[in-house]
Design goal:
The protein is an alpha+beta fold. Among the domains are: about 140 residues, no CATH class; about 90 residues, Pdz3 Domain (Roll), CATH 2.30.42. The C terminus is likely disordered.
């Protein structure tokens, strides 16, 4: 019993905290813009399933916390369900009632309501990172070679201690953390690296070796490494304007790296076992919580960016799918037929459910849950 309570405190509570915050931010973006457009909100839920607790505000909106902390939703007047499927009776509403629904809003307002969720996640991440950079500092190690891994890629190529890395794969380098990020995403692929050695510019083509690391769940993660170590690890506190600019840049880089990683999984460069689900997020949350509040807040920003990005994918059921439908409506001058939207919704639902099941299966396999269950009966 004590072990179970310890695991809950170590992993479950940080996981619930992280997910609840980023989901609230996402849904609150939808909520604020919907209210500004004059849409009536029926309920605002953090989590799915039976309600644990909640209240009803003066506008008649039910604010609720549900028992399954894996998402949330804003249900608007005229919605048949939390997925915003139109109620069959919505066409029978009076003209005044139709003005309170999402479905009878002008297409530009519907686009604004849907886009507000992902954009809120990005705004939250940018503000969070900016505050971290102001109060705690941005990781900012000099981009110089402080040590070389014996017989590593860089050592074999001829890099020397004190070499200053100027560019990696065509990207200008201002701090060592950028080297790790770019090299990590290019395992097994030749990468041009430009260095400055006492005023002399030298160019090397290095092929990062693939390094497999295990997380606390036993999951394996592949990344590239050339075998150089920073001179020192430092944090640089930024002014508010600098922090805001760097937060935008960091958010852009995280999004680009996520898209590149997904592309590598699709093309087979990376293994699909790297796709993680709730157990992987719980593991990261627990580890971040143990490392300190700064790490936990940083993780919130990362997950918020990924939630915003994934929701922009043009997949029916996700916000990006709705935005695709509304964009086509603007181009055609009329909405897609109910039948077409229904087919798209079913395809999107099948895709999302399949992805969730696959990610959860990966978590269970990596954590060796099935082997442990089998051991109990052998």
């Amino acid at each position: 019993m004590e072990h179970i309570l310890s695991l809950a405190q170590q992993y479950a509570l940080p996981f619930i905290a992280v997910i609840s915050v980023v989901v609230f931010v996402h849904e609150y973006g939808h909520y604020l813009v919907a209210r500004a457009c004059g849409i009536k909100i029926i309920s605002f839920s953090i989590g799915f399933g039976p309600r644990l607790f909640g209240w009803t505000d003066g506008h008649g909106t039910e604010w609720r916390v549900a028992c399954l902390p894996f998402g949330g939703y804003v249900k608007m007047f005229g919605d048949a369900d939390p997925a915003s499927t139109p109620d069959k009776a919505v066409k029978e509403l009076s003209d005044e009632e139709k003005k309170l629904t999402f479905f009878y809003q002008p297409v530009n307002k519907r686009i604004a309501v849907v886009a507000a969720g992902p954009l809120s996640n990005y705004l939250f991440a940018i503000i969070t990172l900016a505050v971290l950079f102001i109060l705690h500092g941005q990781p900012f190690s000099p981009p110089s070679v402080g040590a070389l891994v014996e017989n590593g890629v860089a050592a074999r190529a001829g890099l020397q201690l004190g070499d200053r890395v100027v560019s990696v794969d065509g990207n200008g380098i201002s701090r060592f953390e950028d080297i790790k990020r770019i090299i990590g995403m290019n395992s097994g692929t030749p990468v041009p690296v430009i260095i400055d050695r006492s005023g002399q510019t030298l160019t090397y083509t290095l092929t990062p070796e693939i390094v497999v690391q295990k997380d606390r769940l036993g999951g394996e993660h592949k990344s590239g490494r050339i075998g150089i170590v920073a001179e020192k690890i430092a944090f640089k506190k930024l002014t508010p304007l600098e922090a805001l600019g760097q937060a935008v840049i960091e958010s852009w880089k995280m999004s680009a790296d996520t898209l590149k990683g997904l592309g590598q999984i699709i093309t087979g460069v990376r293994g699909s076992e790297e796709i993680g689900g709730p157990l992987r997020i719980a593991e990261m949350s627990g580890r971040a919580a143990q490392d300190g509040m700064e790490s936990l807040v940083w993780l919130m920003a990362i997950i918020s960016i990924n939630l915003g990005l994934v929701n922009l994918f043009p997949i029916p059921l996700l916000d990006g799918g709705h935005l695709l439908y509304f964009s086509m409506e603007k181009l055609r001058g009329r909405p897609l037929s109910d039948e077409t939207q229904e087919v798209g919704f079913r395809i999107g639902l099948m895709f999302v459910v399949t992805l969730m099941v696959f990610a959860t299966w990966n978590d269970l396999v990596q954590a060796e849950i099935f082997s442990k269950i089998k051991a109990l009966f052998s």
